[in-house]
UniProtKB/TrEMBL annotation:
Its cofactor is pyridoxal 5'-phosphate. GO terms for biological process: glycogen catabolic process. GO terms for molecular function: glycogen phosphorylase activity; pyridoxal phosphate binding. Belongs to the glycogen phosphorylase family. This is Alpha-1,4 glucan phosphorylase. Allosteric enzyme that catalyzes the rate-limiting step in glycogen catabolism, the phosphorolytic cleavage of glycogen to produce glucose-1-phosphate, and plays a central role in maintaining cellular and organismal glucose homeostasis. It catalyses: [(1->4)-alpha-D-glucosyl](n) + phosphate = [(1->4)-alpha-D-glucosyl](n-1) + alpha-D-glucose 1-phosphate.
């Protein structure tokens, strides 16, 4: 094997083996890492060895930039964003880091010269599934944009040992298995044992007067754990900025309790060790919280206290007084999951730093800003008082004090409206009593935002209406965005090249430049290349579908895609009603001329959400019947992709022709998949919900397939005694579809299997599928008509991409920086 022992100039041009960017430097670094880190030589190296060797090669170059970033920040002492989130879904790192560093090509060549295919190493990486869906993925897009915009920022969270479960489909059903993502090790993370903090829980508080006669509080916990930092570098695109994702892992307070050990309590010590680690053991796999889960509250407190203590450590190094904490840090609460931070910062300032209440409250109220991500009442977090009291007794005292001072203000402001104080209170007094985390977040934050225009508006009118009336100046909108680096450049290289050729570079970090495409929308030669790009991604997805499901799909058919968490409000079953409608049409009229379609579904259900699991069963049951029916062969195909993930999404978004964004209007706060599809030239069929509204405004109504009731009509329909039966009786096609499901046709004659679903639709239909059915079917017919005209379709597709610029997370982050965080870019020079 090639051997070298000079670590300073392997390329012969003064480049270091740890940092050089040429093909030769990368080749030598790869071999060096393979040999000295993995202990292997090429001939016997496994795929894992090669993947790791390359990961370490990339990581060395990342660390180089990281060190420069830390130096720069130390000297400049800039105002810093801290993002607190219980979830992150960053996706695989290798491809993006290569791309952001601009060394994809030399790396590909270096590996090629060794007979290794870069794509196979990229495909091998397992992603950290440390989130449920949109909320966690948004946090990851924000990290990418913060680094790219050169904003000093740290993203804090939990290093779950097991992320979101792996979804298998067995006999058409979702089966959950554990996600052991750390099994083979994670080359991207750096453990920092010196950076660790105590985490107290339980016990009681003691109030006393100190020697100076001052009132003090001591929290005597029942137990103490430790949180240890595990860091992952986050590189921006085409810049040297490397920010930090700092995740906390729970450990026992002392690695092993040697005191107990000496007293002979060996098993006790080991058990404590094991019990401590359970705090960061597993991600809760629900996209709405489970009320009263002790471990979940513990996780929230755990990562929040570690993160705040970490900020205070950094703050100390600046020499600034603690009263100016909020000038150094601005802390964003990603939903209410970290909202306990409001009480925890107060506790640290009062009990550890001995600030008086008013000063501590001033600092706290100027530190936090809160993003709400949902209006669904079942997703608003609240904790039973007894549970809260038993885990966080000091925090509860502080919350009572915050609340009492706040309610005094409220009563003064509205002296003749006693109900209002009740409604605004942090404590929900209806028995059993609860702590409302959204109220704590609103009271403790200087800014509150929703994630799309419609959502922010509805927030002010519904769940946060009383807070809006109290403090209108706190409320803002920050429409979500997604990163074009991962979701265009990396996942759709063909599109990337075509855009570079047409527009030159620059659009990757200034997505509004895509407007330049409008001039080419009707150019037949450009249109032809556009179609080739799409065609190539459709073929690639067909290959993946074959691998994952053993089903062959046809790239000439229209790919009609819905990938997202499975939820009744997202209405995957409305999509099914359409599929069965088409099926019935063909069965009635076998010669029917329709546009051939491939329906692709993907997404996980919360393990305890029975109706969502039943929807997955129905998708698979319909797929089974449709796919084996010769009468519809070549015209209809249905696929359920198991275990949808960021990685799988990168195959799916670029290949879609139609993107289904069909939630009941008013229910989807924003959606972000809608943006990823549109950026890749898929057309949207959707309701006026979440960010769909703004996407349609920007791409143009004529380039968007709109259907369904709007949010106002939805509330009116539900308020005025909605009767789904009337719709069923009035529409023969709808009746046929529902009857077919009820008949057991998709369950080998078993009428009972899907009965709960049918019953719910006919009796309640809380998400208004039947009310929207006719309009949805008519709209899908228009989709087919448009697809028959390739010039028209391609023009619409090009215009979608041309006008999607607003939905880059760079725009979103620039707005947060300007309107909420008040932070400036700090460019980093390489040392
Ligand atoms: C969103 C969640 C969520 N909203 C509770 N709320 C969770 C709530 O584990 N929990 O308890 C986890 C997640 N996730 C999503 O956020 C919205 O539904 C989307 O519409 C939105 O695009 C996304 C990002 O803002």
């Amino acid at each position: 094997m090639t051997k070298h022992n000079n670590t300073t100039k392997p390329g012969g041009n003064g480049e270091s083996i740890r940092t050089g960017m040429s093909e030769e430097a990368i080749r030598l670094a790869f071999l060096d890492n393979l040999f000295y880190v993995q202990g292997r030589f090429l001939e016997v190296a496994s795929l894992d060895d090669k993947y790791k060797a390359l990961a370490y090669t990339v990581r060395d170059r990342l660390l180089h930039r990281w060190v420069s970033t830390i130096r720069t920040y130390q000297q400049a002492n800039p105002r810093t964003v801290c993002y607190l989130s219980a979830e992150y879904l960053p996706g695989p790192f290798m491809g993006l880091n290569l791309l952001n560093m601009g060394i994809e090509e030399p790396t590909r060549k270096a590996l090629q010269s060794l007979g290794i295919d870069l794509e196979s190493l990229i495909a091998y990486e397992q992603e950290p599934g440390l989130g449920n869906g949109g909320l966690g993925r948004l946090a990851a897009c924000f990290m990418d944009s913060l680094a790219t915009l050169q904003i000093p920022a740290t993203s804090y969270g939990i290093r779950y040992e097991f992320g979101i479960f792996q979804q298998d489909i067995r006999n058409g059903e979702q089966v959950e298995t554990t996600d052991n993502w750390l099994h083979y090790g994670n080359p991207w993370e750096v453990r920092r044992p010196q950076i660790s903090y105590d985490v107290k829980i339980g016990g009681h508080t003691e109030h006393y007067t100190n020697e100076q006669g001052l009132h003090r509080v001591r929290w005597v916990p029942h137990e103490t754990f430790r949180g240890v930092a595990i860091d992952t570098p986050i590189l921006g695109h085409d810049v040297n900025t490397v920010n930090l994702m700092r995740l906390w892992r729970a450990e026992a307070a002392e690695a092993l309790d040697f005191h107990a050990f000496n007293e002979g309590d060996y098993y006790g010590a080991v058990l404590r060790e094991v019990r401590s680690e359970t705090i960061s053991k597993v991600l809760y796999p629900n996209d709405a919280p489970e009320i009263g889960k002790r471990l979940r509250l513990l996780q929230q407190h755990f990562f929040v206290t570690c993160s705040l203590q970490d900020m205070m450590r950094v703050h100390r190094t600046t020499g600034m007084p603690i009263e100016r904490f909020h000038e150094k840090f601005t802390v964003q609460l990603n939903d209410t999951h970290p909202a306990i931070a409001v009480a925890e910062l107060m506790r640290l300032l009062l009990d550890n730093h001995h600030l008086d209440w008013d000063t501590a409250w001033h600092v706290t109220r100027h530190t936090f800003a809160y993003t709400n991500h949902t209006l669904l009442p079942e997703a608003l977090e609240k904790w039973p008082i007894p549970l809260f009291q038993s885990l966080l007794p000091r925090h509860l005292e502080i919350i009572y004090e915050i609340n009492s001072r706040f309610l005094d203000e409220v009563r003064q402001r509205y002296p003749f409206d006693p109900d209002r104080a009740q409604r605004l209170s942090i404590i929900d007094e209806t028995l059993p009593r609860h702590v409302r985390m959204a109220h704590l977040a609103c009271i403790g934050s200087f800014a509150i935002n929703g994630v799309a225009e419609l959502h922010s508006q509805l927030l002010k009118e519904t769940v946060l209406r009383d807070f809006y009336e109290l403090w209108p100046e706190k409320f803002q909108n920050k429409t979500n965005g997604v990163t074009p680096r991962r979701f265009m450049l990396l996942s759709n290289p063909g599109l990337g090249s075509l855009l570079n050729e047409t527009l030159g570079h620059g659009w990757e970090t200034d997505l509004e430049q895509l407007r330049g495409l409008e001039a080419h929308a009707d150019d037949p030669a450009f249109q032809e290349r556009w179609r080739q790009v799409k065609r190539q991604r459709k073929e690639a997805l067909a290959g993946e579908v074959h691998k994952l499901c053993g089903i062959d799909i046809t790239p000439t058919s229209l790919y009609d895609v819905q990938v997202k968490r499975i939820h009744e409000y997202k209405r995957q079953h409305l999509n099914l009603l359409h599929i069965i409608t088409l099926y019935n049409r063909i069965k009635r009229n076998p010669a029917l001329d329709i546009v051939p379609r491939t329906f692709i579904f993907g997404g996980k259900s919360a393990p305890g959400y029975a109706m969502a699991k039943l929807i997955i069963r129905l998708i698979n049951a319909v797929a089974e019947m449709v796919n084996r029916d010769r009468d519809v062969a070549g015209r209809l195909k249905v696929v359920f992709l198991p275990n949808f993930s960021v990685k799988l999404g990168q195959w799916v978004y670029p290949a879609a022709d139609i993107s289904q964004q069909i939630s009941t209007a008013g229910k989807e706060a924003s959606g972000t998949g809608n943006m990823k599809f549109s950026m890749n030239g898929a057309l949207t069929i959707g309701t006026l919900d979440g960010a769909n509204v703004e996407i349609r405004e920007d791409v143009g109504a004529e380039n968007f397939f709109l259907f369904g009731l709007d949010a106002d009509a939805v509330s009116h329909t539900l308020a005025n005694g909605y009767r789904p039966w009337d719709y069923y009786n009035a529409n023969q096609e709808l009746k046929d579809v529902i009857d077919l499901i009820a008949s057991g046709f998709f369950a080998h004659g078993d009428r009972s299997l899907f009965q709960p679903l049918v019953d719910h639709l006919l009796q309640h239909d809380s998400y208004l599928l039947l009310a929207d059915y006719a309009d949805y079917i008519a709209c899908q017919d228009q989709v087919s008509a448009a697809y028959r005209d390739p010039q028209r379709w391609t023009r619409m597709s090009i215009l979608n991409v041309a006008r999607i610029g607003k939905f880059s997370s760079d725009r979103t982050i620039a707005e947060y920086c300007r309107d909420i965080w008040k932070v400036q870019p700090v460019p980093v020079k390489l040392d």
